[in-house]
C-alpha cells in the first residue's frame, strides 16, 4: 500500500510561483508513473503533469511552459513547480501514482488559491 502526502499549497498572487511536493510512503517502483492532478470547484479532476520512472513528462496544455515536474525515486518524492500563476490555476491539487497501468493511489490534496 502507498500513502501520498502533499505539501506546498497556499495563497499566491497572480504571476507568482509555488512548488508542490509529495512524499510517498511504501515502496515506489521505477515503473510507477507519478503525477499531479487538480480539481477546481464544479469541474472535473484533470491531469496537470506526470512523469515516468525514466523521466518522460506530460503536461496539460494549460500549464505547459509554466510548470515543471520532477521526481526523486530514492526519496520517494515528486515535485511540481509552477510559475506565472493565474487565477484559473486555483484548485485542489492531488498527488497521484499509477502502478501497472491500472492501480491508482491518491493523496488527500492541497489547496492552491491564486488571488490578489
What order do the helices and strands come in, and which of them pair?
Layout: E1 3-7, E2 10-12, E3 18-25, E4 33-39, E5 46-51, E6 57-59, E7 67-72, E8 77-82, E9 91-99, E10 103-106, E11 110-114
Parallel strand pairs: 2-11
Antiparallel strand pairs: 1-3, 3-8, 4-5, 4-9, 5-6, 7-8, 9-10, 9-11
Verbal overview:
The chain has 116 residues and is mainly β. The chain contains no helices and 11 strands. The chain has strands at residues 3-7, 10-12, 18-25, 33-39, 46-51, 57-59, 67-72, 77-82, 91-99, 103-106, 110-114. Strands 2, 4, 5, 6, 9, 10 and 11 form a 7-stranded mixed beta sheet that branches. Strands 1-3-8-7 form a 4-stranded antiparallel beta sheet, with no helix packed on it. The mean pLDDT is 96.
Give a brief rundown of this model:
With 116 residues, this protein is an all-beta fold.
Notable features of this structure?
4-stranded antiparallel sheet, 7-stranded mixed sheet, mainly beta
| Alpha-beta classification | mainly beta
Sketch the major β-sheet: 7 strands, mixed
Over all CA atoms, what is the radius of gyration? 13 Å
State the low-pLDDT regions, or none: none
**Series of secondary-structure elements, N-terminal to C-terminal:** EEEEEEEEEEE
Question: What percent of the residues sit in helical stretches (DSSP H or I)?
Answer: under 10%
Q: Estimate the mean pLDDT confidence.
A: 96
Shape estimate: globular
Number of strands: 11
User: How much strand content do the residues show?
Assistant: over 45%
Termini separation (Å)? 40 Å
Helix count?
A: 0
